[in-house]
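Internal tracking record. Fields below are filled automatically when a chain is submitted to the structure queue. Please do not edit lines marked as system-generated. If the sequence contains nonstandard residues, flag them in the REMARKS field before resubmitting.
Queue: standard
Priority: normal
Entity type: single polypeptide chain
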Amino acid sequence: MSRAKPTKTRLSGDRRRAEIVDAAEAVFGRKGFDATRMNDIAEASGVATGLLYKHFPSKDELFAAVIERQAENLATRITAAVSAASNPVDAAMDVWFSVLERPEFHTVDPGGHPGYAELRDRFAAIVTDALRAVYPSATEDRLRLAAAAVVGAAEAAGEAWRAQPGTLSRTEASELAATFVVGGLTALD
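SYSTEM-GENERATED OUTPUT FOLLOWS
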């Protein structure tokens, strides 16, 4: 008596790409860009390497898809939090620190892939827009520079907090970073 092979459910191209990006996000988050191989991602996503390359011809293109997804999610969450908050800096920092709790989310990588700069630029654009609403008389140059300072402080404080788990809660850490940033933003008045 022969056994019938189990049949796999065929996924749409978009759904398969999404599953590959899910797996890539976890693998890149665990290993970093430089140490990750396409074979690692193919194995994690349960697809053949050839199918992986059909969807993403290079590791750079796949990594760009991961960064794009992270940037979109971050932009959506921060924009919603800032627009609903009485204190936009506190709201943005809280979202930022909640995102950093995810081990697959990184803003820095030993390989220094340019995708990280894109992620920081997107964050800075959101912060610039939020600051423009609070400080309407500030010049664009001052707003952009202040936003870069906010992003830099958030990134450095967030990575330092993540490297020392258990020392401060997420809320304590985000509030401390926000207090620091708000003190510096008085220069825009």
